[in-house]
Write a structure and sequence with these properties.
This protein has a single domain, classed as STAS domain (Transcription Regulator spoIIAA, 2-Layer Sandwich), CATH 3.30.750.24. It contains 4 helices and 5 strands; from the N terminus they run ββαβαβαβα. The protein is of the alpha/beta class. The radius of gyration is 13 Å and the shape is globular. Helix 1 runs parallel beside helix 2.
Length: about 120
Amino acid sequence: MERIPILRMGKLLLVTIQVDMHDRLAMTLQDDLTSRIVKDSAKGVLIDISSLDVVDSFIGRMIGDTAAMARVLDAETVVVGMQPSVAITLVELGLALPGVRTALNVEKGMALLTGTEPL
């Protein structure tokens, strides 16, 4: 079964989605990520979606739900690298993604999670 790697960087987890997301992969990622937050006592999750050209309503909801689960587990979530077409689609679908912070790139996302200024 295909899995998306989750990298640990101190108290943060980094997820870079570099494949087309389908429903089963999204659910597997959600399960893997929540397990890793607990296992690693992670305080932040950075999800890089810069390779995604298309996000449907299920994947959009999954991102929002994952951020909500992370919050319950005491971890912040920042989504980075959203393509303009993806942002337009999410708005058109009416998915506001409450509680999901966004940043233009990984560097700015890490700064949000660590409370530091990007270089």
